[in-house]
Write a structure and sequence with these properties.
- The radius of gyration is 29 Å and the shape is flat.
- A hairpin with a 6-residue loop joins strand 9 and strand 10.
- The protein has 455 residues and is an alpha/beta fold.
- Helix 6 packs antiparallel against helix 7.
- Helix content is 46%, strand content 18%.
- It folds into 3 domains: 123 residues, Gyrase A, domain 2, CATH 3.30.1360.120; 129 residues, Four Helix Bundle (Hemerythrin (Met), subunit A), CATH 1.20.120; 145 residues, Rossmann fold (3-Layer(aba) Sandwich), CATH 3.40.50.
- It has a 7-stranded mixed beta sheet. A 7-stranded mixed beta sheet has the order 9-10-11-8-12-13-14, with helices on both faces.
- The protein is built from 15 helices and 14 strands.
- The structure holds guanosine-5'-diphosphate (GDP) and zinc ion (ZN).
Length: 455
């Protein structure tokens, strides 16, 4: 029995008290192994992709009443025979169904092994497999949408399309190198240059919105800064109130840092150092101007809070100035009170300013929209898809880009075609690695080991 065809099984629904849980098997022995413990129709005889009623038994003992889905290779998730046993008896019974099925013909699946088989059997490529994992781990609808589009293969279609353009140039160049007497080298060089430039452009687009998108995956590091009593805590409370839930509250590295995540619309804000805001009312006084500078440096987004009922202090003018190169929103709070603030001495643009009353929850919707327009713009491609390359894919995109840059340099410097072709081939290979072509075993193993059991 070879490795690929041994039969694996796992519970593939989340643990907990769901109404139905599924034990999934994949491999040559899947049907036979279930049949040994199944009382009902002869599963060897039923057509593929059918659901069959019966009981799972251990010798004479009935363990659970089940519905068994039979899916024969190759039109299945793994391209192998798959059996899914829908159990009704709760977690304990499901566990018992699984242990009854496991035996000489079936072993326990490793984490991610079903998806790994789908990949190794050519059913999905590496970007799609990675997206399955992202989907399992996604926290917001945006992440979910991005993952769905990756699972759906939009990203790998784009990569494959770029490679298709490139392979034609490679074929041409190889003919020219093998038969120099054809003397069409100049044409090939031109074609190579055109293709390289066009691929580079498209790569740059993906790289740009993926880098932009990393922020969305990991959370937008957000600093709420401002003088004492302007309403930072009140703003924080407004953000909490306006939202479904605080996702996590994790102790930071030092005693007095606390990083909190909140979901705002489609985005996750990772609030930097809210300890100062929660526990004292004098962030700047207590922690010092130095501290707020550290926060500004680390932040992807600065929410600078000012009190509309007071005049600007010199420190606040300084803060406005210090944050001018950041993605920021200058929030004028306490707009319910008579207004004394005068911003004419600053160079603030109208669209950077947002008026709110944190105490009364006024302006939350506008704040949310402004943050969304700052961070969601530019992550959709021309087809309206959100394709976020992960760190591994980005690394390879950058590598491809470098190789293509040297192709352009080579062509400009009249380097012989066979040498330029080396770089061009290199670029073609890196793009292939993104979708898992010639992916080294260690990479594949490492990747799938991060999956959860049963996927
Ligand atoms: P922080 O020191 O910047 O965190 O400011 P706080 O959120 O603790 O608010 C300072 C004071 O301003 C408190 O008494 C709040 O009730 C009050 N405050 C905050 N937001 C508003 C607002 O929108 N309108 C009014 N009238 N008072 C506010
Ligand atoms: Zn406060």
């Amino acid at each position: 029995m070879n490795f690929m065809n041994d039969t694996i099984a796992a519970i593939s629904t989340p643990t907990g008290l769901g109404a139905i849980s599924i034990v999934r098997l994949s491999g040559d022995n899947a049907i036979e192994a279930v049949m040994e413990h199944f009382k009902g129709t002869d599963l060897n005889q039923v057509p593929t992709h059918t659901i069959n009623y019966g009981h799972i038994c251990d010798a004479d003992e009935v363990i659970d009443e089940v519905m068994v889905t039979i899916m024969r290779a190759p039109k299945t998730y793994t391209k192998e025979d798959i059996v899914e046993i829908n159990c009704h008896g709760g977690p304990y019974v499901t566990q018992k169904v699984l242990s009854t099925i496991l035996g000489s013909k079936v072993r326990m699946a490793e984490p991610g092994e079903f998806t790994k088989r789908a990949f190794l059997n050519g059913r999905i490529d590496l970007t799609e497999a990675e997206a399955v994992m992202d989907l399992i781990n996604s926290k917001t609808t945006l992440q979910e949408n991005a993952a769905v589009e990756m699972v759906d293969g939009a990203f790998s279609r784009m990569i494959k399309d770029l490679r298709e353009q490139m392979i034609q140039v490679i074929a041409n160049a190889e003919v020219n190198i093998d038969y120099p007497e054809y003397d069409e080298e100049e044409l090939t060089r031109q074609k190579m240059q055109k293709t390289t430039e066009s691929v580079l452009n498209q790569l740059q687009e993906v790289i740009d919105y993926s880098e932009h998108g990393q922020v969305l995956k990991s959370g937008i590091k957000t600093a709420i800064i401002g003088a004492p009593n302007v309403g930072k805590s009140s703003l924080l409370n407004m953000l909490y109130r306006g939202n479904r839930a605080i996702v996590t509250s994790i102790p930071g590295t030092t005693r007095d840092t606390l990083e909190e995540e909140i979901t705002i619309g489609q985005l996750v804000l990772d609030l930097i150092d809210t300890a100062g805001i929660h526990h004292t009312d004098d962030l700047i006084e207590k922690l010092g101007i130095e501290k707020s500078h550290q926060m500004i440096t680390r932040a992807d987004l600065v929410l600078l809070v000012l009190d509309g009922s007071r005049q600007l202090s010199a420190e606040e003018v300084q803060l406005i100035n210090d944050t001018k190169d950041k993605q920021r929103i200058v929030i004028i709070n306490k707009t319910d009170l008579p207004q004394k603030i005068d911003l004419s001495q600053t160079n603030l643009a109208q669209e950077e300013i947002l008026k709110i009353s944190a105490l009364n929850g006024i302006g939350f919707k506008e704040l949310k929209e402004q943050i969304e327009s700052m961070f969601l713009a530019g992550i959709e491609n021309s087809n309206g898809e959100v394709l976020l390359a992960n760190a591994r894919q980005l690394g390879l995109l950058n590598k491809t880009q470098e190789a293509l840059q040297s192709v352009l340099t080579g062509l400009a410097d009249d380097v012989p075609l066979d040498l330029v072709l080396i770089d061009f081939n290199e670029a073609w290979k890196s793009l292939g690695e993104i979708i898992g072509e010639n992916a080294p075993d260690e990479l594949v193993n490492e990747l799938f080991s991060r999956f959860c059991l049963g996927k």
